[in-house]
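Cross-posting from the chemistry board since nobody answered there.

I work mostly on the small-molecule side, so proteins are not my area. We synthesized zinc ion and want a rough idea of how it might sit in this target. Sequence and SMILES are below. Is it possible to get a predicted 3D structure of the two together?
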Amino acid sequence: MFVINCPYCGERDQSEFNSGGEAHIIRPKQPTELSDDEWAEFLFMRKNIKGIQFERWNHTHGCRKWFNVVRDTTNDQIHAVYKMGEKPPKDY
Amino acid sequence: MSNYRINKTDFVDQTSRISFKFDGKTYFGYKGDTLASALLSNGIHLLGRSFKYHRPRGIMSCGSEEPNAICQINDETELSEPNVRATEIELYEGLEVSAQNCWPSVNFDIGGINNFISPFIPAGFYYKTFMWPKSFWKNIYEPLIRKSAGLGKSPTKPDPEIYDHKHVHCDVLVIGGGISGIMSAKLAAQKNLNTILVDDKNTLGGSTIIQENEDFKINNEISKDWLIKEIKELQKLDNLTIKTRTSIAAFHSYNYLLAKENLTDHLPKDKKNNSIRQRLWKIRAKKVVIAAGSIERPLVFNNNDRPGIFLANSINKYLNFYGVSCGLNNFIFTNNDSAYETAISLFEKGISVNMIDIRKKATSNIVKQAEKLGIKIYWNSTVTNTFGYRKINSIEIMKLSDDGSNVMGDKIKINCDCLGISGGWTPMVHMHTQSGGKLNFRENDQVFLPKDGYPNQISVGSCNGDFELDEIIKNTNRNIKIYLDIKNTDYDNLDISCSKEVEKRNIWLLPNYLPIGKTKSFVDFQNDSTAKDIKLALREGFRSIEHVKRYTTTGMATDQGKLSNMHALGIIAETAGVKMGTLGTTTFRPPFTPLTFGAIVGRNVGRFFDITRKTPMHEWHLDNNAEFENVGQWKRAWFYPKNNEDMHKAVQRESKAARESAGILDASTLGKIDIQGTDASEFLNRVYTNAWSKLAIGKCRYGLMLNEDGMVYDDGVTTRLGENHYLMTTTTGGAANVLSKLEDYLQTEWPELDVYMTSVTDHYATASVCGPNSKKILIKLFPDLKFDDENFPHMSFQKAYLDKIECRIMRISFTGEQSYEININSKYGKSLWEKCIDAGKEFDITPYGTETMHLLRAEKGFIIVGQDTDGTMTPVDLQMDWIVSKKKYDFIGKRSLYRSDTIRDDRKQLVGLLTDDPNEVLEEGAQIVADINKKPIDMLGHVTSSYYSPNLKKSIALAVVRSGKKMKGQKLIVPMENKNINVTVSDFIFLDKENSKLNA
Ligand SMILES: [Zn+2]
């Protein structure tokens, strides 16, 4: 079970959080303009990376804030956390 | 009966005698004994029968690695427990033990016949033999296998013991109280770090505590004496918590560990009462020091499993720790130096001992010491056979060929009553790998070792591959200094002298003059897998260790292969001609030793199993005979039976009353979300399918919420309380998820919106009064309020006061009847409810539960999200096109509503079904077909809701049917087990399609 460093609350047990899947997928501003394929790309396609992955987490049983996490999926090490709308602290 | 207790020790109190029963007979041991040491002191070796061949088996080790001596304790009582290792259970007054896996008794066991037919039980036997014919499995094979292959009996009564869970945080957790663990704990605590030291035994000291040989000295003291002083100093340290009888069950990522502490298992029966038996510690450690030690390896040779055959170091432990001699005429069979300590211990206590060593010679101090004492050593030799059915009585020895692949010369047969075996040592890397660590293979002595570099944990001592006393001390000291950033320690200048092993020789499967098929060389003692089985698996084409393991069941018993995994790997490597390090290991999964279910669930049993949410009116429901149903964690009143009514009768009465006069429902469990902010209207516009900007203050509107894939997610009525203030209701089960989903969009997609949300589900209690007389009841309760349709129309809201307590009244309806939902601060929920009941008395107001609610809404054709939908239904599928705004540019899920798949007109669509026989009620979930004779039958859909309607006096059902929209009037069939039910597709609104009742 991880310890996650919520950018608003600090280190907390994983049981307080929920994972929200891959990060930095932006909902299209004009969905009606998109073809079925383009919409499907947003709706269904995820990278499911083995290695460094950018993902969203929610401090569900805490401050309820969403934020981003950089996690290595091969060993679960969390390399960084940063707020929504921010860029990762460095290139991975 | 002879007494094998020949020695007084510091660890067993020979003044305090304890009686216990084994297989019905009373024996005595002492305080400090394990069941195993007490049995051995009574000369009892035979403890059970093996799993497959029912061979007699005895105690083999002195710890958690024990494969054979597993027994049933306190059988036939509520404290019955199977598969308990005799080597781990501390003796207590009143303990009753019985042997397992034997019938009728351990000395005469009918299943022993398997031993003689064993050529017919090779690896994969069960897979191969019991495959055919299929019909034989259930009635013949399975009961047969179960009866003869049982490992102990599960208890049949509830466990009366108390179990506990506790969370703890620490700077440093040290696993293992041997010499390296003791050193690490001391250094950590001296550095002012909050430290916990755990050990599964009742005393600290590991294997050094029995090291009494003068070849092993620290600062000129015998290593054991030095360690005892260290332990005494350790106990004085402030920052250190020592937990004995505590074993680590699991090591998860981020240094999260589970440890089971035994609190009362060692106490006499009359002192266990009402105290916690076991506590599961949930430990979060900043740093972890693994000092788990190592386990001695057996040797694999013909008939290496007889009672009286022990791991060599265990003989030493029984002797020096418990004062018990395992035999009086001992042979120690070894491939390494460590077993010589045991031999010398025995010799010095005047017990006969001889050595058999597969090495050609050895030149270390300890071997020289043995030779000087006159202990006979058979060099370059192996045991080729053992004899004695219930206990070993002799062995057969032969010389090894030069390359070790064969035996030669004469067979020497010698009497003995105990054989110690030592194949070297296996570091306990389980903890390291459980936490995600990887391993390296060290060719020199063929061990897997932790790869260093894993963050915030370190392995020290023999679990890290240090087997010599000086290496253990020096490396532990050096590594802990670096790990914990310590400059100088008490251990920097210790003077250590110890014997050092020089010659090494290892043969995983010792040779024999018999062909392998004629030998019984056990690799996994508990699961009865032999070297022959592993070779057979290789011949049949298995290569991966994970496959061989499963095919031969090696390492799959309750000991998880602690003694067998390395030999299995070694034999595979030797046979396949590959390097052992390239094979990898099997996965070490938690728990390290079996955990009781009690420890896992802790106090979460019975009514504490899960959280129970109750509405403020709950007590009233109880007082009024309600039956409850679970909706998520909520207890909801289901129906209120009167005069022994069954559910059907109660629901018929309740639903008739609600339509004909007045009914009242506890709707407090509905999710309620308070939404505020200048952009609240825009926000609702984006999350619901219909338009919200024009909803006037004081008005209510039904909304449907989709997932981004266009499928219906939740629904409910939202009320505009003010310019920038809404109250949203959700389904009971969906409340938390809806809030979470809305927060997601708000924070991540539309952070520019000025909107704030909070859950107020528990803040308000809700009584829903419905029926033609509901208005009259409300007028009595709120005499100051105007209830005429103009001032308080359907789908609107009024603020009101009930004895000065503010209420929100929504005139909304889920039944099709005129209906008012009164929300009040939950503190006053019960009082509100009682006032409604009181005011409704003259109209015979009838409380109704969720079942009647479901029936009433089905009559009206209102869907329940999650019952009539299943995550694959769009609003169009539900024939709710009217609620999907065509004008709005965007809302969650809109784009998906015209994907190629969602615009198909042959999707499953919501319809009504009427049975040709109006008294026939369909089963929910039943399949619907058109042509019963077509093969395979084409499934068109299924029934989602089905009731007998007392108001319509017929059976009604909702269903989802492929292309159902076009099928109105069509005949379909619902095939059931014994009959086919004829149905007709109908409109799904069965009652009052014109909504005349709402505004009556
Ligand atoms: Zn937080």
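Reply from a structural biologist on the board:
Welcome over. Reading the output above for you: Chain A has a mean pLDDT of 94. The longest strand of chain A covers residues 52-58. Happy to explain the token format if needed.
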